[in-house]
Amino acid sequence: MSAISLEKQVADWDVTGVAGVLERTSTESGERLVDLVQASPLLLVFLRHAGCTFGREAVADIASLREEIESNGTRIVLVHMGDRAGIEQLVKRHGFSDVDRICDANQELYRAFGLKKGSWQQLFGPKVWVRGLMAAIGRGHGVGRPSADATQMPGVFFLEQGLVASAYRHRSAADRPCYTSLCTTDDSRNL
């Protein structure tokens, strides 16, 4: 997995909007997101859709890194746009069914965290096709049908003590961030 540099400043950040959305949002098991953020460090992973090869790869990556990510008390929360059955099947495939999930069908959280719609290049450019073939065929993640907004870009945010400590907004659908680097809680991060 390649290490991709982290964003120091969060562009398009709507602090008031994020606070409001955290208050209003609950996980699929009924826990309020604001309570989770206040209770422990949180890795908030925004997926595209259950049929997305890169979303499947992200779930596989995070599942394989789960022990390392959670070693400092970090809690993982996956945010998706509504295909509960597809996401459930995906997390179950990777032994990850007990991970917290949030269904954000209206994409309110996506917007509050500044995640945009992708351009043609970000979604279908040459880099995306090459990486897509490698992930789909070479790594066995396959290709599925879009089950939600296929133009939505993903992102990953590490929240600590109620604040965003690090963030990664995908520049293309094919980006593969270093999840463990995002979760580092000391000053060794290269922000």
Walk me through this protein's architecture.
With 191 residues, this protein is an alpha/beta fold. It has one domain: Glutaredoxin. The protein has 8 helices and 5 strands, in the order ααβαβαβαααββα. A 5-stranded mixed sheet has the order 3-2-1-4-5, sandwiched between helices. The longest helix is centred in the N-terminal third of the chain and has 18 residues, at 53-70. Mean pLDDT is 79; it is low at 1-11 and 187-191.
Topology, element by element:
Layout: H1 15-24, H2 33-39, E1 42-46, H3 53-70, E2 75-80, H4 84-93, E3 100-103, H5 108-112, H6 120-124, H7 126-138, E4 155-160, E5 163-169, H8 179-182
Helix pairs in contact: 1-2
Number of helices: 8
CATH class: Alpha Beta
Q: How would the global form be characterised?
A: globular
Oligomeric description of these chains: single chain
User: Taking strands numbered 1, 2, ... along the chain, how are they ordered across the largest sheet?
Assistant: 3-2-1-4-5
The percent range for helix content is 25-40%
Mean pLDDT: 79
Name the CATH homologous superfamily: Glutaredoxin
Count of separate structural domains: 1
Helix-strand sequence: HHEHEHEHHHEEH
Low-confidence stretches: 1-11, 187-191
Rg result: 15 Å
Strand count: 5
End-to-end distance: 19 Å
In terms of structural class, how would the helical and strand content be classed?
alpha/beta
**Strand proportion:** 5-15%
Q: Largest sheet at a glance?
A: 5 strands, mixed
